[in-house]
């Protein structure tokens, strides 16, 4: 249960980000400054957690040796097996989609409402399924096609396309939102497959490190030297870093390897209502009843494949039991 709650809390943290970014834009800050302060904060917090975790494990191992508890000492040491540079580079590469997601998603918020941006980002649910189907060279089954239809219909309602028409929204903003969905789906898939044997704290730290390096190449952090960091930008950076670059990667690194990418995508559905609620109450964006109905349909579509899978498993277990033999 703790692994499910871990992924759930990580997804809820992602739902907070769009509201914070819109508020930061309202204060005049730019894209590179917003994402840069977020990742620098996440980088510091992630490595503080990793080093503290290693320090605690070292103390426990030392106590175990003093008590001649060699089994506990050996188990503590195996948890922190030193990563090779190949593994570190792999983790850093797996962290780069978080930067791309942040850049294109935050940029889309300049052109479209936050409630629409999060709905477009949320298309990662079916995009993840499509990527896995292509990588495994397997055609999606009937349940997947049904899910895609439900998600498409729910998206049209939730985004307000049926009420206001597609022409009322920025085409560039819609494209950026969908690009963020593709990048986010890659992050969800990679976060569970990149060096799963490594400790979650160090997996997260190296992933954030890779993302920060990429961002510094794309947007040199001039705000660190011109004094802008000591303005209100620091507050936004701390909030974004905590809820965007620190909490989700750590919690995903803990939970995804144990519950799988498919279930992680379903639990990530909680990000949608959290973001829409905050955009409605904090940013005062109009969200109609029809849009909320679309949000519910999207959530149903996301959960449908896993629900059908569980129903089939229960039926097969019931038919194979001695009662039916």
From TrEMBL:
Compartments in which it is found: Endomembrane system
Entry's Gene Ontology cellular component terms: membrane
Family: Belongs to the EamA transporter family.
The name this protein goes by in its record: DMT family transporter
Signal peptide: none
Domain EamA, first and last residues per copy: 172-304
Keywords: Membrane, Transmembrane, Transmembrane helix
Organism: Paenibacillus barcinonensis
Upper classification of the organism: Bacteria, Bacillati, Bacillota, Bacilli, Bacillales
Membrane topology qualifier: Multi-pass membrane protein
Pfam families: EamA (PF00892)
Transmembrane segments: 7-28, 34-53, 112-131, 143-162, 174-192, 204-223, 229-252, 289-308
InterPro entries, per database record: EamA_dom (IPR000620), EmrE-like (IPR037185)
Top-level taxonomic group: Bacteria
């Amino acid at each position: 249960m703790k692994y499910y709650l871990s992924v759930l809390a990580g997804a809820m943290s992602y739902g907070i980000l769009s509201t914070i970014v819109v508020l930061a834009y309202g204060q005049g800050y730019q894209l590179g400054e917003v994402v840069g302060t977020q990742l620098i904060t996440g980088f510091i917090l992630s490595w503080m957690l990793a080093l503290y975790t290693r320090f605690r494990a070292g103390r426990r191992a030392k106590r175990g040796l003093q008590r001649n508890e060699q089994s506990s000492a050996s188990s503590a040491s195996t948890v922190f097996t030193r990563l090779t540079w190949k593994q570190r580079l792999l983790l850093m590469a797996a962290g780069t989609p978080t930067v791309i997601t942040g850049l294109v998603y935050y940029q889309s918020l300049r052109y479209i409402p936050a409630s629409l941006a999060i709905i477009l980002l949320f298309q990662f649910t079916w995009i993840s399924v499509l990527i896995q189907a292509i990588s495994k060279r397997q055609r999606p089954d009937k349940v997947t096609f049904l899910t895609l239809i439900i998600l498409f219909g729910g998206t049209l309602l939730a985004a307000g396309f049926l009420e206001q028409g597609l022409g009322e929204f920025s085409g560039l903003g819609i494209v950026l939102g969908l690009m963020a969905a593709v990048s986010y789906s890659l992050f969800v898939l990679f976060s569970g497959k990149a060096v799963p044997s490594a400790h979650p704290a160090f997996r997260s730290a190296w992933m954030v490190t890779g993302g920060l390096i990429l961002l510094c190449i794309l947007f040199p952090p001039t705000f660190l030297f011109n004094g802008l960091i000591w303005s209100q930008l620091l507050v936004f950076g701390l909030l974004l870093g905590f809820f965007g670059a620190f909490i989700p990667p750590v919690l995903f690194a803990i939970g995804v390897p144990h519950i799988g990418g498919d279930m992680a995508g379903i639990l990530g559905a909680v990000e949608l209502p959290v973001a829409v609620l905050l955009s409605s109450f904090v940013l005062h964006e109009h969200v109609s009843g029809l849009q909320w109905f679309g949000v519910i349909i999207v959530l149903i579509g996301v959960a449908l494949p896993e629900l059908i899978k569980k129903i089939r498993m229960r039926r097969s277990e019931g038919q194979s039991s001695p009662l039916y033999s």
